[in-house]
Specification:
Elements: H1 5-18, E1 23-27, H2 30-42, E2 45-52, E3 57-63, E4 65-66, E5 71-72, E6 77-79, E7 88-89, E8 103-108, E9 111-114, H3 115-121, E10 125-131
Antiparallel strand pairs: 1-3, 2-3, 4-5, 6-10, 7-10, 8-9, 8-10
C-alpha cells in the first residue's frame, strides 16, 4: 500500500522522463487525476486516460518531449507538502516557481489549480508540488 500517492505519481513521471519513455502508468485517485488535468492544461503532458483492470484503475500518461534528442518538457518535479509536514499558504504567500516559469500546484477549496489561477481568484491552500 502506498501512503503518498502524489509523491509516487511524481516519481513515476520523473523516472519515465529520465529513461525517455512515451508513457507512464500510475494508480488512479481523485487527486492524481486533478493534478494531471492541471499538467495537461499547462502543456507539460499530452494526454492521460483511465484504464480499468480487474481490481484497480490506472492512469496512462502520455509524456511530452521536444526536439530530435527527445528533451523532456518537464525538467523537475518537487513534492512540497508531505503527509508528515503539510504546507499551507494564503493567497498573499503563494509561491512563484522560478520567477513564474514553473508552476506550483495548489489544492484549494475550489479544487486543484496552479498558483497563478489561485492568485487571480484570491485563494490559498495546500502547496502540493512544484513543476518546471
Amino acid at each position: 500500500m502506498i501512503n503518498d500517492t502524489i509523491a509516487d505519481m511524481l516519481t513515476r513521471i520523473r523516472n519515465a522522463n529520465m529513461s525517455k519513455h512515451q508513457i507512464a502508468q500510475v494508480p488512479s485517485t481523485k487527486i492524481t487525476k486533478n493534478i494531471l488535468k492541471v499538467l495537461k492544461k499547462e502543456g507539460f503532458i499530452y494526454e492521460f486516460e483511465e484504464v480499468q483492470e480487474k481490481l484497480r484503475n490506472h492512469l496512462i500518461i502520455s509524456l511530452k518531449y521536444k526536439g530530435r534528442n527527445k528533451k523532456p518538457i518537464i525538467t523537475e518535479l518537487k513534492r512540497i507538502s508531505k503527509p508528515g509536514l503539510r504546507v499551507y499558504v494564503n493567497h498573499k504567500e503563494l509561491p512563484k516557481v522560478l520567477g513564474g516559469i514553473g508552476i506550483a500546484v495548489i489544492s484549494t477549496s475550489k479544487g486543484v489549480m496552479t498558483d497563478r489561477y489561485a492568485r487571480n481568484l484570491g485563494l490559498g491552500g495546500e502547496v502540493l508540488c512544484y513543476i518546471w
